[in-house]
Amino acid sequence: MARFRISPERSELWAEARSTLHPVRIHTAGLEGIVEAEPGEETTPPRLGMPTHVEVETQRLRSGNGLVDGELQRRLDTRKFPRIRGELRSITGDGPGAITLTGELTLHGVTRTLDVEVTIRRLDPRTLQIEGGRAIDMRDFGLPPPSFLMFRMQPEVQVRARLVAERED
């Protein structure tokens, strides 16, 4: 297994939730972490291993709407819980298509075990890309959906990430 460092500049996270007024979309770069993987050859797909983890600072989660962002930062309690962390626990599937990762997501001080379907591919001999997403329910992490005035957000959030990891020497 080789060790790859997630490139914060090249890795991104998107989240989208429905609300009574309009969809709330969040986008950020700056994801960090480590990926253990067997990079594979040109004809064989990469294989993930452990330990593998990814983190992002909660203050990076912004929608571009000041009211929504203020409420989001308040509910996430970014001072008390400055990071969101995902840690890989197991892998199902080993083919060239999608594989299922089981891991622990820690958000707002609450850790839950989740499955996510991802694809992994080599961008070049030293770089891997992992993409995947799933829905999460904010209430599972002790976060009631934001609401103020006429604005009410649905508790289910669609989250998608693209991690680009570069091999360490």
The proportion of strand residues reads over 45%
Uncertain stretches of 5 or more adjacent residues: none
Helix content: under 10%
What's the tally of helices?
Answer: 1
Largest beta-sheet details: 8 strands, antiparallel, barrel
Please name the CATH topology: Lipocalin
User: What is the element string, with H for helices and E for strands?
Assistant: EEEEEHEEEEEE
Q: Please identify the top-level CATH class.
A: Mainly Beta
Name the CATH architecture. Answer: Beta Barrel
- End-to-end Cα distance, whole Å, is 12 Å
Structural class category: mainly beta
Question: What is the strand tally?
Answer: 11
Mean of all residue-level pLDDT scores: 90
CATH homolog superfamily: Lipid/polyisoprenoid-binding, YceI-like
Could you say how many structural domains there are in total? Answer: 1
Radius of gyration: 17 Å
